[in-house]
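[Automated response] Your request has been received and processed.

Submitted sequence:
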Amino acid sequence: MSDLHSINEAINKRAGRKLGPSIAVSLFLLALIWFALAYERVIFAGLVTVAVILGLREMRMALSTSNIAISFKALTLATLGLGYASWVGGVAGLAIATAIAFPCLLIWLLREGPEQFVAKATATSLALIYLPFLAGFLILLARPSNGFAQVMTFVVLVGCNDTFGYLVGVLIGKHPMAPKISPKKSWEGLVGSIIFTPIGGALTFHYILDLDWRIGVIAGLMTVFTATSGDLIESAIKRDLSLKDMGNLLPGHGGILDRLDSVLLSAPALWLALELVKRYL
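Generated structure:
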């Protein structure tokens, strides 16, 4: 038992997180997603919207450390609008809702006067696009009749990228990929993602989506790029704001944004890939 404890402590130290709570939270989130999709897909849309609102709260608190203010109230209203429009109107609804929300948010800021208007408007625009807009593609994945299969495929792809990148990086990672942005992320971990995510893509596209496994391999490689880029973007935000985590809501993960980082850029990419497959293959 002492040997197992020592190994666990070594892994925690190398990874910078506690492994046990991280696994427990991941399994709980997976079960929650599965239940929502299996019972009623609109519940999943609601879960996405709630997660985005919690993420906006973390974003507001993080930006406040650098004296940059965004309106949580206004962005929450925008999130509700984008989520509803995505479920009811599809990608056109998401686009139109975003186009309406953007000027409305800028007009809202006028109430506070010209002081730091550029900084607040920039941060508000980032929050709008980074969270409710990109997360809207998760809702778009769940919207059609095969939404359960599409979202579970997405979960497998992102899960393979994060899990195997993490495991390989912890076990043999020695060469930092972007030391100034994410010191724990290694080239070895990226190779682990590149090897295993296309395998997950091939299996899910063949057995879940009933599509050519070779398309799944391409989708897997695409997910490695988007998920890794999303992780680095969120890490860059944290480094710029001198934060370790965006929050502490999820034990072993940090905040909601620390869990959504690889998801936000990957959702629109997979949605687009599946749309192209439907139309041209």
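Summary generated for your ticket: The two ends are 54 Å apart (CA to CA). Residues 1-38+147-281 form one domain.
If you did not submit this request, please reply to this message.
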